[in-house]
Amino acid sequence: MSEFVNDNETPRRHFHTFDALRFFAVFKVFLQHMPIAAFPWFNYVKLGGYVGVYFFFVLSGFLITYIICSEKQRSGTINLKNFFARRVLRIWPLFYLVVALCYILPPVLGSMGMSLTGAGYEPRLGWSLLFLENYRMIATGDLPNVFPLAVTWSLCIEEHFYIIWGLLLYVVPLKHLPKVIGICLLIGIVSRIIFVQSGLDPSDILTHIDLFAFGAIPAWLLIKHEQAIVKWVTSIPKWIQAAYIPLLLAIILVVSQYWNAVINATLFGCLFSFLLILILPKQAFIRVSDKNIFSRLGVYTYGIYLYHIFIVAACRKLFEKLSFTLDEPLPAFSFVITCLVLTVGCSYLSYRYFEQPFLKLKKYFRKG
């Protein structure tokens, strides 16, 4: 996705490394949901799945801004109908399939002695269908009792961002985009402070708009000052660029242990924005080939994000029936590998046979 999605939407520029970064981001979310107790250190490593979502928001802010600004700079305007149609074709099919599964599977599995439900509020179809599940979570201060539905909160925010950003950049001249970015950075920080002090869950678009704005910064630099930014990045010593990745991983590992809704989003927004700047040059030092296994897996991150909860729940029931306990190393390791392989396999099949037919329709909504 720009987000959890490999759009392949724009012919203007292919960005190397993005797919690999997508996979590592969704893998962090995947680890967060592993019910493993066999390795004490694993509890330390798996925390911070929200960091992966933060990265998707920053990356989405970059790609959507780049797509819109490139079109506006080339033609002087934006075809909003085409833009929204492409977003619908990419996001809605799989989103609504998963929402349907969340409402259909619980009673079916319940009749078989299995369950996808737990503590939480009873979901309402209208809220789910209108990408408002995150606001229901804020209003109730709880999660839906059909736990796979809870992961759709970030997709709700993504959808709200597409609408706001598309309309905003349609009316705002490109020369004023830096001001828009600055205002959004301020809105995000202030909104999180207000939400936290009010005891509300900061899971709406306003409390995350600055993450998208952090992604818009390198997009603006690439559109308006490509030569200057490339020259600046290539002037940075390679050892500093090489050290940035392990430094970023170390910060993620440490900061993930201490949840602070106000500070963490701003910190990772800055770090991820700078990471994107480092990989913008076509011959960047930090580079992962499209043929790399992680880049290939990154194509299926949207499916991995949405399907992995179902797979984890099913595997957990299976291991329980086989009397495997996840507080022992070998069963725990086998559980993680099994969940990962099945999730990737399911996501691959979904992408190829369910999502791609919709993606092929996007060619009818491109402005020539």
How many domains would you count in the coordinates?
1
Unreliable spans are 1-11
Give the biggest sheet. Answer: none
Give the overall shape.
globular
Query: How far apart lie the N and C ends?
Result: 24 Å
The share of residues in helices is 55-70%
Based on helices, strands and strand pairing, what is the structural class? Answer: mainly alpha
The percent range for strand residues is: under 5%
SSE diagram, text form:
Blueprint: H1 18-32, H2 40-46, H3 49-75, H4 80-110, H5 125-129, H6 133-140, H7 153-171, H8 177-197, H9 209-224, H10 226-235, H11 238-255, H12 261-278, H13 293-298, H14 301-321, H15 329-359
Helix pairs in contact: 1-3, 1-14, 3-7, 3-9, 3-12, 4-7, 4-15, 6-7, 8-9, 8-12, 9-12, 11-12, 14-15
Description:
It is built from 15 helices and no strands. The protein is mainly alpha-helical and 368 residues long. The chain has one domain (18-360). Helix 1 packs parallel to helix 14 (301-321) and helix 9 (209-224) packs parallel to helix 12 (261-278). It is globular, with a radius of gyration of 21 Å. The two termini are 24 Å apart. Residues 1-11 have low confidence and may be disordered.
Task: Please describe the structure with a list of short key phrases separated by commas or semicolons.
single chain, 368 residues, mainly alpha, 15 helices, globular, disordered N terminus
Summarize the structure.
The protein is mostly helical and 368 residues long. Helix content is 69%, strand content 0%.
